[in-house]
Write a structure and sequence with these properties.
Pfam families: Ribosomal_L7Ae. The protein has about 100 residues and is of the alpha+beta class. The protein has five helices and four strands, in the order αβαβαβαβα. About 55% of the residues lie in helices and about 15% in strands. Strands 1-4-2-3 form a four-stranded mixed sheet, sandwiched between helices.
């Protein structure tokens, strides 16, 4: 999988306002059923990773690990981000296929 492909797609989703980032906002989106895919950085703290993955499992939201928080933040044109929620089915499906 080329890093750039999924990163530019995530950037596109972000510009389309179909992305939210940060732990609290992401958990909120999972809870209210809007999150279609969660991207979690591999260097997230154990607590954050557990909180987010548990929430994903209980709400049946798929999640993918990405290399690190810098890459994830950079993809959406922000500072380092540990977790990002994709709020659109189309973007989520395509991202999932690129990250598999």
């Amino acid at each position: 999988m080329s890093i750039n492909q999924w990163m530019s797609l995530l950037g596109l989703a972000n510009r389309a306002r179909k992305v939210t980032s940060g732990e609290e906002l992401t958990i909120k989106e999972i809870r209210n059923g809007k999150a279609k895919l969660i991207l979690l950085s591999a260097d997230a703290s154990i607590n954050t990773a557990k909180k987010v993955t548990d929430k994903c499992k209980s709400y049946h939201v798929p999640y993918k690990l990405v290399e690190n928080r810098e890459i994830l933040g950079h993809a959406i044109g922000k500072e380092a981000r540990v977790v990002v929620a994709v709020l659109d089915d189309g973007f989520a499906k395509k991202l999932k296929s690129l990250l598999d």
